[in-house]
C-alpha cells in the first residue's frame, strides 16, 4: 500500500471477558474453555512432527528469574498467561481477559503500548519416552526475534532467530531427556520499520504489541540418523494440449550423525513407485532426484489438471517419501501438490497478462487481511475464502502477512488463486522506497531477507493456488536484493512467475512489473472505472477501490457506541478511529460529500447507512464490470484488478467487501452482481448494454431487455434483442446502445436489465440508477489516492420514491449440518413504483444476523407484479438453537421480519 504523508483494564473474571468477546468476535476466539498451559506429548515414531500447543507467556519485566530457570522443567510459572499455538502476546492477553474487546469503540487505545517495549517470555513443556530418537525444533514465524532455550540451555541467540519468515531447525537431541522437557523463547519487541517482519501500514489501528510473538507452529520433530527435508515435486504440464505432465521428485537426504550411513529412499506418487540407495558421509547432505527418465511412471498421460474456481476442478496429488536405515524407518516426508501451468508475459501494452493452463485469465481479486492479532481460526478463514468464490473472485492478494500453510491448503481446495508478496513502505522497502518509513538495510538484513525468500519459496511452491510472488510492492528491489531473491527462488525450484513490484516499477533483471498502482483509494463515481487512464479499466491494477465501505447497521451497532454512531452520520470531518490511522484517510469527508451531493443530505443514521449501501453497490459493481468488459479489447485491454481490500482485520469503515463479522453490505452484493458468470451490464462510458460470459462454453439464444423508468415507475424506454450469442471464457457482446435522452423531465432514471434464455428463464437481473447530469471528474488534479469530482450526478429523486411493500414467504431445509432457507419476494403495492435494493437478512430469534451466509442474490430491484426466489445457505449451528427468521427491507421498502422455519 502507498505510504501516507492509557493503561489496560483488568477484568475480575475470565467469564466476563469471554462474554464481552463472545458478542464481538468469531466463535473460535470467544467460546470454549480458557487456554491452559498444557504439556504436549511427543510420539516416538520416526518422521513425526508435533506442534507444541500448551504455551504460557509473561513480560520479562515481571520475571526476575534467570533464563536457565525459566526454561527448565518444573519452573513455577505463577501468574503467567496461557496461550495457544501461533499466538502474539496481545492475542494471549485478550484470551485471558486482560483487556476489553479492542474491536469495539476506542478500547484499543486503553492498552498501554509501553508494556510491549520489553521482551516477553513464551514457554511450553513437552514429554518424550524415547530418547534414542533424534529430536529437533522446527519453526518460523518469530516476531521479531528470539533467544531460544531448551531445558535451561540457550540453543540459538536472537541474532540468529530473527525475521518473521525465516525458517529454523535446531537439533536439541543432546538436551532432551525422558519425561518432561521445556522450550522457551525470549521474544524481542517488534518494529516493522526496523525489522523484516510485518506491519499494518494504513489498513487499521496497529496492535499495541505490533504482533510480537510466535505466529506459526513450533514443531518437535523425531527421526533417525537420516533426515528427509525439502521434498517437492517439479511439474511440467504440456500446454496447450494438457495431454501429459512430467513430474520430477526431489528431496534432501541429510546424515545427522558423525558416522557414514547408507539409506534407502523410497517414494510413492499415484501409481508410481521408486527407490534409491544413497550413501552419505558424516553430516553430508545430498539431493535425491527421481524423474521420468529413470521412473517412466512419473510421466503422466491425461493428468488431472488443477484450475481456478469456475474454470474446472481442483484435483491434488500426494507424494510420500520414506528413508530407511538398516531396515528401520528413519524419516518420512509428504507433500500435496497440484498440476498446472502459470505464465505471465507482458502484453503489447506492457501489462502483465496471466495465463493458466494455456488460457488467458482476467485477474479479479481482493486484498487479504488476517486477524489484527494474527489469531488463526481455520473455519473463519475458510468462510472468507468461500465468500471469495461466492463473489466470483478468482484471486486473493497477500501483501505481507503470509498466512500459515493451512490457508494455502484451503485456497488449493477452493480454487482461489493467491498473489503473495512482501509488503510496502516499512523495513522491507527501506533501501528502495524514498517515501517509506523503513530503515536502511545492514548486511545482516540482506541475509535475513534472502533466508525469508528461501523459506517462503520452499513452503509455497507446491500449492497450485499460488499464482506468483511479488518481490516488491510499492517499490521494486535494487540489484543486490533482487539477486538474493531470485537466487533463493531458483534454488527452491520456484514454479510460478516472479513479479518485481505491484506498482509500475522495474528491477534490473526482471524488468518492468506490468502492473500499476495508480489508485484510487478513496471515493470516485462509477463512471471513473471505464476511463482508460489512472486506475480505470486498462492493464493490471494491483490495488484499488472507491475507499470507504460502511458496514450494515447490525455491524455498526456492534463496533461503535451510540455517540460515535451519531458523529458518523453528522460530521464528515470527524476523525474516525475505525477508518485508518493515516492522516489521508482518517475522515470520511470525500465520501460523505459525494453521498450528500448525489443522494441528498442524510437525515439520520439509518438514512446514512442506506445511502451508503446504494453508493457502495454501484461503485464496486462498476469497478469489476469495467475491467470485465475491457478484458478483450484490442487497445490497452484490462488484465487484472485487485479490489483494495477484500476484508478487514478488524471492525472497519473502509476497504472491505465483507466486514469483520462476515456481514454483507452493498459492496459485497455489487461485486457479486458484477462477477456473475453470465451477466448483462450497462457501460457508463458508451451507454451500451453488454452481455458477458465467463462460462467455458458459448451462450446462444439469449434475450436481453433494457427498460428505463422514472423513479415513480413511469416507463420511458424499452428495448429487447433476441437470439444473442456470446462466446465463452470471458467473451462479451454489445446488444445495443441506450439513447442519450428520453422523454420527460426527470433527471434521475432507473435502468432494469434482464437477461433470459430461449425458454424465457431469467438468467441475470441488474438494476442501475442513472442521472441526466453525470458526474464530472477533474482528472488534472488527480492525486495518488483520489480524482476529484467537480459535479455530481443528480440522484436525489430516489429519496422521493413511494414506499413499496414487499411480501415474503420463506421455508428452511436442513441436511447434515447445513441449512438452506428459500425466500420468495413479491411486490404487493397497487402503484407502479418499483422496490429498489430489496435486502433480505437471515436472523435468529433475537434478531441477530446469522453469519456467514451465502445468498444466491440479494439487494435486488422488483417492479410491480414481479417476484423472485432467493436462497441462503449456512451452517445450522450458527442459528444458535433458534428457528430461522428473515428480515426484509430496502431503499423504499418498510422493514419486516417473518419466520422461515
UniProtKB/TrEMBL annotation:
Record-linked InterPro entries: Beta-gal/glucu_dom_sf, Beta-mannosidase-like_N2, EBDG/EBM, Galactose-bd-like_sf, GH, Ig-like_fold, Ig-like_GH2, Ig_GlcNase
Keywords: Glycosidase, Hydrolase, Signal
Domain Exo-beta-D-glucosaminidase Ig-fold: 784-893
Coiled-coil zones: none
Top-level taxon: Bacteria
Domain Beta-mannosidase-like galactose-binding: 70-189
Signal sequence extent: 1-30
Sequence ranges assigned to domain Glycoside hydrolase family 2 immunoglobulin-like beta-sandwich in this UniProt record: 227-340
Pfam family, one: Glyco_hydro_2_N2
Family statement: Belongs to the glycosyl hydrolase 2 family.
Protein name per its UniProtKB record: Exo-beta-D-glucosaminidase
Amino acid at each position: 500500500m502507498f505510504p501516507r504523508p492509557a493503561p489496560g483494564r483488568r477484568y475480575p473474571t475470565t467469564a466476563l471477558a469471554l462474554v464481552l468477546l463472545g458478542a464481538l468476535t468469531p466463535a473460535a476466539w470467544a467460546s470454549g474453555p480458557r487456554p491452559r498451559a498444557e504439556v504436549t506429548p511427543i510420539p516416538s515414531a520416526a518422521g513425526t512432527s508435533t506442534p507444541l500447543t500448551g504455551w504460557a507467556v509473561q513480560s520479562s519485566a515481571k520475571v526476575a528469574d534467570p533464563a536457565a530457570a525459566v526454561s527448565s522443567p518444573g519452573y513455577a510459572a505463577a501468574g503467567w498467561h496461557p496461550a495457544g499455538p501461533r499466538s502474539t502476546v496481545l492475542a494471549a492477553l485478550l484470551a485471558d481477559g486482560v483487556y476489553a474487546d479492542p474491536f469495539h469503540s476506542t478500547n484499543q487505545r486503553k492498552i498501554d503500548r509501553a508494556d510491549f517495549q520489553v521482551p516477553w517470555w513464551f514457554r511450553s513443556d513437552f514429554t518424550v519416552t524415547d530418547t534414542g530418537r533424534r529430536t529437533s525444533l522446527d519453526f518460523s514465524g518469530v516476531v521479531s526475534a528470539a533467544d531460544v532455550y531448551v531445558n535451561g540451555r540457550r540453543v540459538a541467540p536472537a541474532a540468529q532467530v530473527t525475521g518473521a519468515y525465516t525458517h529454523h531447525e535446531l537439533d536439541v537431541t543432546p538436551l532432551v531427556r525422558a519425561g518432561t522437557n521445556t522450550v522457551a523463547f525470549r521474544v524481542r519487541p517488534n518494529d516493522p520499520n526496523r525489522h523484516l517482519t510485518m506491519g499494518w501500514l494504513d489498513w487499521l489501528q496497529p496492535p499495541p504489541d505490533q504482533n510480537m510473538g510466535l505466529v506459526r507452529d513450533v514443531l518437535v520433530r523425531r527421526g533417525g540418523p537420516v533426515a528427509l527435508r525439502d521434498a517437492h515435486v517439479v511439474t511440467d504440464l504440456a500446454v496447450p494440449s494438457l495431454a501429459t505432465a512430467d513430474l520430477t521428485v526431489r528431496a534432501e537426504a541429510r546424515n545427522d550423525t558423525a558416522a557414514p550411513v547408507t539409506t534407502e529412499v523410497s517414494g510413492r506418487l499415484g501409481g508410481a513407485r521408486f527407490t534409491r540407495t544413497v550413501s552419505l558421509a558424516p553430516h553430508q547432505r545430498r539431493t535425491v532426484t527421481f524423474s521420468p527418465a529413470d521412473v517412466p511412471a512419473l510421466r503422466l498421460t491425461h493428468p488431472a489438471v488443477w484450475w481456478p474456481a469456475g474454470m474446472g476442478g481442483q484435483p491434488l496429488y500426494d507424494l510420500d517419501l520414506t528413508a530407511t536405515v538398516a531396515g528401520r524407518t528413519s524419516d518420512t516426508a509428504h507433500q500435496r501438490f497440484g498440476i498446472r501451468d502459470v505464465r505471465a508475459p507482458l502484453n503489447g501494452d506492457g501489462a502483465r497478462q496471466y495465463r493458466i493452463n494455456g488460457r488467458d485469465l482476467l485477474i479479479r481479486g481482493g486484498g487479504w487481511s488476517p486477524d489484527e492479532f494474527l489469531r488463526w481460526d481455520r473455519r473463519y478463514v475458510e468462510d472468507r475464502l468461500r465468500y471469495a468464490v461466492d463473489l466470483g473472485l478468482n484471486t486473493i492478494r497477500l501483501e505481507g502477512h503470509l498466512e500459515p500453510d493451512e490457508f494455502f491448503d484451503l485456497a488449493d481446495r477452493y480454487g482461489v488463486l493467491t498473489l503473495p508478496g512482501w509488503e510496502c513502505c516499512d523495513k522491507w522497502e527501506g533501501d528502495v522506497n524514498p517515501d517509506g518509513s523503513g530503515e536502511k538495510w545492514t548486511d545482516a538484513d540482506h541475509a535475513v531477507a534472502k533466508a525469508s525468500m528461501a523459506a517462503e519459496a520452499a513452503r509455497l511452491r507446491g500449492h497450485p493456488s499460488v499464482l506468483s510472488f511479488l518481490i516488491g510492492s510499492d517499490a521494486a528491489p535494487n540489484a543486490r536484493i533482487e539477486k538474493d531473491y531470485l537466487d533463493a527462488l531458483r534454488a527452491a525450484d520456484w514454479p510460478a512467475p516472479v513479479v518485481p513490484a505491484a506498482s509500475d516499477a522495474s528491477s534490473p533483471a526482471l524488468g518492468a512489473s506490468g502492473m500499476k498502482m495508480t489508485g484510487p483509494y478513496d471515493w470516485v463515481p462509477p463512471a471513473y472505472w471505464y476511463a482508460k487512464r489512472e486506475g480505470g479499466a486498462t492493464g493490471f491494477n494491483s490495488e484499488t477501490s472507491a475507499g470507504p465501505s460502511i458496514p450494515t447497521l447490525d455491524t455498526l451497532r456492534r463496533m461503535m457506541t451510540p455517540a460515535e454512531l451519531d458523529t458518523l452520520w453528522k460530521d464528515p470531518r470527524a476523525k474516525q478511529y475505525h477508518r485508518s490511522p493515516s492522516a489521508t484517510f482518517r475522515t470520511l469527508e470525500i465520501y460523505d460529500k459525494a453521498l450528500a451531493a448525489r443522494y441528498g443530505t442524510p437525515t439520520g443514521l439509518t438514512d446514512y447507512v442506506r445511502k451508503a449501501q446504494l453508493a457502495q453497490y454501484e461503485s464496486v459493481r462498476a469497478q469489476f464490470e469495467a475491467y470485465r468488459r475491457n478484458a478483450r479489447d484490442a487497445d490497452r485491454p484490462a488484465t487484472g484488478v485487485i479490489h483494495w481490500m477484500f476484508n478487514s482485520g478488524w471492525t472497519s469503515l473502509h476497504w472491505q467487501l465483507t466486514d469483520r463479522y462476515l456481514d454483507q453490505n452493498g459492496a459485497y452484493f455489487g461485486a457479486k452482481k458484477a462477477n456473475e458468470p453470465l451477466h448483462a451490464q450497462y457501460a457508463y462510458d458508451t451507454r451500451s448494454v453488454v452481455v458477458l460470459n465467463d462460462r467455458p462454453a458459448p451462450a446462444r439464444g439469449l434475450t436481453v431487455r433494457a427498460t428505463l423508468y422514472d423513479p415513480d415507475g413511469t416507463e420511458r424506454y424499452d428495448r429487447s434483442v433476441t437470439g444473442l450469442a456470446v462466446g465463452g471464457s470471458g467473451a462479451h457482446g454489445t446488444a445495443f446502445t441506450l439513447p442519450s435522452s428520453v422523454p420527460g423531465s426527470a433527471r434521475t432514471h432507473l435502468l432494469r436489465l434482464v437477461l433470459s434464455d430461449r425458454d424465457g428463464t431469467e438468467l441475470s437481473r441488474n438494476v442501475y440508477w442513472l442521472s441526466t447530469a453525470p458526474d464530472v471528474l477533474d482528472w488534472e488534479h488527480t492525486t495518488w489516492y483520489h480524482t476529484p469530482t467537480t459535479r455530481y450526478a443528480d440522484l436525489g429523486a430516489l429519496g422521493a420514491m413511494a414506499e413499496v411493500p414487499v411480501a415474503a414467504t420463506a421455508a428452511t431445509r436442513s441436511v447434515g449440518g447445513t441449512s438452506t432457507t428459500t425466500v420468495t419476494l413479491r411486490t404487493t403495492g397497487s402503484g407502479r413504483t418499483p422496490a429498489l435494493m430489496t435486502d433480505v437478512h437471515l436472523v435468529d430469534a433475537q434478531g441477530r444476523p446469522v453469519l456467514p451466509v451465502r445468498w444466491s442474490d440479494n439487494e435486488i430491484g422488483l417492479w410491480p407484479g414481479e417476484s423472485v426466489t432467493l436462497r441462503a445457505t449456512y451452517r445450522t449451528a450458527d442459528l444458535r438453537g433458534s428457528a430461522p427468521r428473515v428480515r426484509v427491507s430496502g431503499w423504499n421498502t418498510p422493514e419486516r421480519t417473518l419466520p422461515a422455519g
